[in-house]
Amino acid sequence: MPVVKQYYYGQPYATINFDIEEVAGEYEYESLELPKFAWSRATIISAIVRCHYTQDDVEAIINNHIGEPEKEEYTEDFNRLQAWRRHSKDVAHDLLEWAADHGIYEES
């Protein structure tokens, strides 16, 4: 799990690259930036979810699903969101484990 430690105006942060795949001799991946002091499971999960969904998107998907659960389109949107959240939790777990092994993060 490549993490690049950097500083911006003296403040530590990390660029995190995940879901890395080699495609036609090049790499494709998701990327996000996270302040070092914000390294918690919840913060990382939220940041990964936000790579694909804004707060407005999440609210709309949940409200559409609750308001009209019989609509297949709303159920599919909701299921995709939930799948991405589950994936985000897995990535956060792997990232925290990798960071602890490499001295970037220590669980308190």
What does this structure look like?
The protein has 108 residues and is an alpha+beta fold. The protein has one domain. Helix content is 51%, strand content 27%. A three-stranded antiparallel β-sheet has the order 1-2-3, with helices on one face. Strand 2 and strand 3 form a beta hairpin. Helix 1 crosses helix 3 (72-101) and helix 2 (55-67) crosses helix 3 (72-101). The chain starts with a strand and ends in a 7-residue tail after the last helix.
Give the helix/strand layout.
Layout: E1 3-8, E2 11-23, E3 26-35, H1 41-52, H2 55-67, H3 72-101
Antiparallel strand pairs: 1-2, 2-3
List low-confidence stretches. none
Count of DSSP-assigned helices? 3
What's the story with the biggest beta sheet? 3 strands, antiparallel
Considering DSSP H and I runs of 4 or more, what fraction of the residues is helical?
Answer: 40-55%
User: What is the terminal-to-terminal distance?
Assistant: 21 Å
Q: Any descriptors?
A:
108 residues; alpha+beta; three-stranded antiparallel beta sheet
In brief, what are we looking at here?
By secondary structure, this protein is of the alpha+beta class. 51% of the residues lie in helices and 27% in strands.
